[in-house]
Records
---
Amino acid sequence: MPLHKQQHGDISKPTLIFLHGFLGSSNDWHETIALLKDDFHCITIDLPGHGSSVTTANSRSNGFDHCHQLITNILDDLSIKQYTLIGYSLGGRIALDYARTQNDPRLTALLLESSHTGLLDEQAKERRFIHDHSWAKKFATQHIIDTLDEWYDQDVFSDLSQREKEIIINQRSDNYGVPVANTLLATSLGKQINALPYLQQTDLKIHYCFGEKDKKFKDVSAQLNNLAHVNCVQFDQAGHNIHQYYAPQFAQFILQNLTHS
């Protein structure tokens, strides 16, 4: 089945394609897009097993390739001539792998928000896949609220207040455990090809955005600082999720840097 998509703004303006993170949906981008739709043609996509794409299963054997094909189908169906791809967390990993593998001349820029570029060695990948398999089992077998309570207790979300965690858990509670578990395994960081060689040689303009309080992805950005075509940008006071908690700053960055993409 095709992925669910939504369009906002003026189709004559530069096109932005938005990919949400794990457990999210197109709705996560609404506040950002409200600030951008006068200047851009914005397209949000629900990834497999998420939002209104909940019945679109991801391929466990080649999850990244399957996502890429589903995204390409949307671009072709909408006759998109040029676009910038914007991805947060899992969506950023899919976007980066898409850029690395698809060699799409329509892609003019890439914006990665709090996204991993891939693990370096096979042992680390194996450990990560085992880790993700453990989470997938919880999502597939436990009540979704119980698993979300554990998920948002991870260090990467430590910048969130208790109230903010309660709000996001309530927002995410409409997810179905088995579909998100399948996507977690299909697009595990343990299955992602390390993209550093690609980032070192590509001519594509890439913006890498991370939060000041997000130590994990601040460390990832340190690997990219000296790459000619990668613009690393820290958002002060922000944590892992910039676009939802600092939407005006995130939208302003896009307006300043992507209007002519």
---
Amino acid sequence: MTLLRTEALKKHFGETRAVDGVDFTVNEGEFLSLVGTNGAGKTTLVNLISAFLLPDSGRIFIGDRDITHASVDERIRSGIARSFQLVNLFDDLSVLDNVSLAIFAREGKTRRPFSLAARDAAVTREAEEFLAEFRLGDKAQSPARDLAQGERKLLDVAVAYALRPKLLFLDEPTSGVSTRDKTQIMDTVSAVVRGGGITAVVIEHDMDVVFKYSDRVVVMHEGRFLADGPPEEIRRNRDVAKYLLGTDV
């Protein structure tokens, strides 16, 4: 069943056609990777879907609902959440408080989050459960700034996941970490997301990660879709090999 779709979505920056008439479909329950060279339009597409940019034309739907002109908050309420390539955390707060704030926001308790945090046992329990799922339980009381880079990446995903989205966008969740940490991050994220029945779209450059974890891979090139299919089909695609990998099949 289709969870999200775009129709002829466009975003141009001067002569640059960052997203050029894209029809994008995400199905419920899939773990999809969105790949392409730098400047292919991946992040622009996600920014359009998550309301960080407005499209020049085209439409965006979550289920049957047109959210093309919905605000960031409205899209979060409709079930869309995201993490960022550059981790966006409250570094002076504890790991637990970072996740708790996402829960407060989800529940509409943002007017007095810090006073609520001291006495809202249900939020604390839920935040602790999320941290345990993301293997950060032993870091709950640590300031976010003290986490290693891989742990920061996991916390950023945990914060987005705490919004209980239907659709979770993950922007470069393994960037800037070692090969070993990449595997640990993706094993954890994949297990949590799949276990929670969440649909995920991952922007990723590491093709080993893409081929290992994805149900479907969508390849962008110069603002358009170059290929769309299961990992083995994408691996054998000559256009993908030429433009993305710089090799022949």
---
Amino acid sequence: MLKVEDLHVSVADKEIVKGVSFSLEKGKIYAIMGPNGSGKSSLCNALMGNPDYKTAGKIVMDGKEISKMGADERARLGMFMSFQNPEEIEGVGLEGLMRKAPMAEARGVPASHREAMQKPADKREEIRNWALVGGKVKKASEGLRLDAEKRDLNVGFSGGEKKKAEIVQMEILQPKLILLDEIDSGLDVDALKAVAKAINKMRDAERTFLLVTHYSRILKYVKPDSVLIMKEGKIVKKGGPELVREIEKEGYGAI
């Protein structure tokens, strides 16, 4: 699904990620763990194409090099990222955002249908499509106990509500490569279990997850196939779920 070769990431001329290489297979869940400042979030932002993060190296997604692509192009290919600190967007609700999302228009839609979508749609069909998206948003929100209806996206949301809203977007868009940057931060135990359930529900043979976290608590509910440890901008160790137990017992200093 994803192959990264000698990736360097800089922010404001400071190198944060220092030449990492790894591959992510389809159908698997990966966890990246590491102490604060190790470069985990910078790595995710670079993979997603955030223009504030300057990169050197090679990124290949599903056989296609995406190193020079913008974030919107990567999204259309099926990449999704939940942010550590989601932006507040005044005047835009969660449902309205989902109706305009590029992945919802592009992925899995035959070319003939995409062409038709560029033409004025029959009003009744448009209403049906809008209702379908609205129903999906409502169902996903209820499953996470998120009250986002009639609220601007993330405006006045608690930290946990913002993370739930990210998961709702993930469920609606059904991406194939999912980057979750500290999705567990700000969540109480019940919310953590609900988010983990949504992730596990989407797990299949064609979808890949990359979870970034400091702690092991979400990994008790979402079992990773592989674990990568980052320190000081480099991947210093790779292994299986046993690495999580090692960190719990010894801390990052022992790695």
